[in-house]
User: Which sequence fits this backbone?
RNA sequence: GCGGGCGUAGUCCAGCCCGGUUCAAGACGCCUCCCUGUCACGGAGGAGAUCGUGGGUUCAAAUCCCAUCGCCCGCG
């Protein structure tokens, strides 16, 4: 993979570039729609292509568990099936670039995230907690209920059948090699927003050790094979602690990765996120691509691009779609609201996506209220197009020197 | 005509047999909000019935009694 920067903004850290992979070129900055289980939920790969999506991100942990064959032996996870199918591109019939997340987020989402019932971002109020004891800080040495985080990796419990499975840096990279995405990520621990400074620092050291192991495994196996080399991104952690963010960015940035992911939380409010992104980006090598993991509400996008982010994945457009929420120039619309039954107009007046050209709010509202899955498909399609189009306009603005 | 059953929020229905600190529960629907490296059919709140109608017993009735209206099932 090669990354080229075609223009750098003079008024922000934004930059225009393109990622060249063996499956095509990605114009950056861009959104990476989430295809956890080798599918953008509700859409076919052909439809996803029509939403102006350029690159997708699938998930190592989920694809390791599924596809699964009953009675399989340890080490024969879903990646084997993908490999036999000719890799994930063939498997899901998406001929364009793909990333895989390492499973590091599942250390959080299936661990403290589940225990404390929090997402990776919480606002100041929730951090304080209405129930003081519910929102306690995670102290050093604490372990999530369902998994064991060790020096060399993590013992998970399969959310599907409860069986124990171990994934560490070595395992994650091997699985990702078999899945065969163009860009893969180092295995990390995404820390919870409630993690204390001490816990986060300790976790960081582990994530840094894992980063080195990932690089070694990656480099060792790349030598022999004639296949196009995958790009490997390291991941910066450090939670909402500025000193740890800088320490992590310096360390991960010094390693020979092809690009860098920025993970975890950045403090509850959007301004803090912007600030911290600047600190991290300042420490990362200028010429390598930066991927912000799991961020991308519409209102965040311009900010993170201005902070110097090249790519970012986010479930928001697709996840909200499945809750009946469409993103439009009027803001978020909850299409389940009965008032939309009276609106004979497209989701967004200015949108020229295939959904908006044909379907109207009243019909989509009816489908939602009737529990018809086509509603979720239509909104997913529109949201992805709307986001991708929005970001395309930002690229144009960068080109014109407006951002 | 006789015998039996039922009548509680928009809908379905719990409570009635052992009447009062549950004058009303739940589900669906409705309304509002929440979802940021994803879990379509999820989470958190909220509005909404004075218990068919009239009368009686009682300190107190959705809960007991009488009448009446409506619906349903048997038998004629």
Assistant:
């Amino acid at each position: 993979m090669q990354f080229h920067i075609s223009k750098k903004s003079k008024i922000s850290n934004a930059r225009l570039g393109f990622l060249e992979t063996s499956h095509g070129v990605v114009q950056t900055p861009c959104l990476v729609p989430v295809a956890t289980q080798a599918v953008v939920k509700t859409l076919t790969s052909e439809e996803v292509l029509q939403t102006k999506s350029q690159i997708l991100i699938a998930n190592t942990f989920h694809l390791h568990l599924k596809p699964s064959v009953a009675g399989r032996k340890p080490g024969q996870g879903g990646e084997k099936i993908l490999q036999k199918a000719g890799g994930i591109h063939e498997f899901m019939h998406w001929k364009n670039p793909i990333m895989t997340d390492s499973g590091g987020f599942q250390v959080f989402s299936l661990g403290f995230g589940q225990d404390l019932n929090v997402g990776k971002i919480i606002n100041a109020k929730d951090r304080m907690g209405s129930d003081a004891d519910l929102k306690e800080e995670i102290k050093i040495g604490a372990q999530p209920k369902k998994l064991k985080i060790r020096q060399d990796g993590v013992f998970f419990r399969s959310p599907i059948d409860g069986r124990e499975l171990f994934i560490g840096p070595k395992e994650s990279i091997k699985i990702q090699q078999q899945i065969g995405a163009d860009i893969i990520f180092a295995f990390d621990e995404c820390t919870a927003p409630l993690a204390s400074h001490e816990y986060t620092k300790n976790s960081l050291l582990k994530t840094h050790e894992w980063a080195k192991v990932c690089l070694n495994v990656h480099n060792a196996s790349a030598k022999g094979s004639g296949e196009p080399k995958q790009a490997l991104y390291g991941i910066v952690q450090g939670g909402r602690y500025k000193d740890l963010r800088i320490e992590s960015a310096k360390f991960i940035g010094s390693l020979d990765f092809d690009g860098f992911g920025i993970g975890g939380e950045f403090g509850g409010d959007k301004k803090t996120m912007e600030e911290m992104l600047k600190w991290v980006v300042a420490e990362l090598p200028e010429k390598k691509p930066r991927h912000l993991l799991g961020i991308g509400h519409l209102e965040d996008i311009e900010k993170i691009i201005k902070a110097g982010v090249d790519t970012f994945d986010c479930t928001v457009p697709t996840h909200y779609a499945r809750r009946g929420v469409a993103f439009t120039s009027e803001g978020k619309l909850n299409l389940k609201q009965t008032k939309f039954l009276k609106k004979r107009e497209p989701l967004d007046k200015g949108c020229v996506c295939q959904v908006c050209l044909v379907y109207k709010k009243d019909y989509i509202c009816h489908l939602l209220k009737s529990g018809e899955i086509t509603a979720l498909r239509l909104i997913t399609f529109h949201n992805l197009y709307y986001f991708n189009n929005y970001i395309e306009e930002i690229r144009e603005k960068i080109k014109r020197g407006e951002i």
Remarks:
- The longest strand of chain A covers residues 2-8.
- Chain A is about 40% helix and 20% strand.
